[in-house]
Amino acid sequence: MNDDAVTSVAELLWEATRSRLPVAPVRDALPAGDLTAAYAVQQRNVARVIDELGWRPNGRKIGLTSPAVQQQLGVDQPDYGTLFAELTYGDGEPVPAGSLLQARIEAEVALVLGDELTVDQPTVADVVRATAYAVPALEIVDSRIRGWDLSIVDTIADNASHGAVVLGTHPRPLSEVDLQKVRMRMCIGTEQVSSGCGADCLGNPLVAATWLARTMVAQGTPLRAGDIVLTGALGPMSPVVPGADVRAEIEGLGSIHTRVIEEAP
Questions:
Q1: What is the CB-side half-sphere exposure of residue 137 using CA atoms within 13 A?
Q2: Closest Cα to residue 40, out of 30, 32, 28?
Q3: How many angstroms separate the CA atoms of 236 and 215, rounded?
Q4: Given CB 3.0 to 4.6 Å as the disulfide criterion, which of 38, 134, 180, 210 pairs with 153?
């Protein structure tokens, strides 16, 4: 892995965030197809956010859980990024657009862990045991890469294109809902812009969460009690701009709502 390239790309993406000016794809600046280098870029900027801004990591997001998107990018695996408390909102809270560049929004299932997942090769049963509850979520995905011209290397380096997350506030235990069969409908204003089901997320959101749990153990950074896990989109994402009023319904989990506003209240 070329450490100079990792440092250069990390600085480029950091400046894009600071200036709110997207940059050209970074994949050609890193070794071709080198996911380890892309994650090293991500980790550099996550560490910088913690050290320089004092932000608190509060979980992980899973991306590329749709087989169609994987095929489009020529990959056979999901990816992950880091969530921060400072970019986490509750149901009904507005999300300020000030830090967003090219925002899109998607609806998904979020798990909140009540226990750590440190066992070697976690199973679905381990994930179920460790999950305190599930809630509906809206993830605002965002890209520092101009025009969403992405490969898997670009999105991994860019913290899996995470922007912000809105979490439901009425938790449901997994015993009350079959996540594979849940149906989702998302509207912006009165227009339906996305729909899907739990099976569209790697076959089951719990399968996606198990992939993440195993990956984090292998990386030496296992999921911990209290972590939020965004399991992946249940349907297509949609562009979102200031003034947008977004609501989604996930069968068995309830509704989730937010507005995107120009300035923080």
A1: 28
A2: 30
A3: 25
A4: 38
Least Cα distance to 155 among 225, 259, 72 occurs for: 72
The 10s digit of each residue's pLDDT in 68-124 is 677 766 677 899 999 999 999 999 999 999 889 999 999 999 999 999 999 999 999
Determine the 3-state secondary structure of 119 from DSSP: coil
Altogether, the residues listed in the chain come to a count of 265
Give the C-alpha separation, 7 to 3, whole Å.
6
Q: What is the pTM of this model?
A: 0.95
Please compute, for residue 19, the number of CA atoms within 13 A of its CA located in the half-sphere on the CB side.
Answer: 11
**What Rg, from alpha-carbon coordinates, does the chain have?**
17
What are the Cα distances from residue 105, in Å, to 28, 32, 109, 117, 128?
27, 29, 14, 29, 27
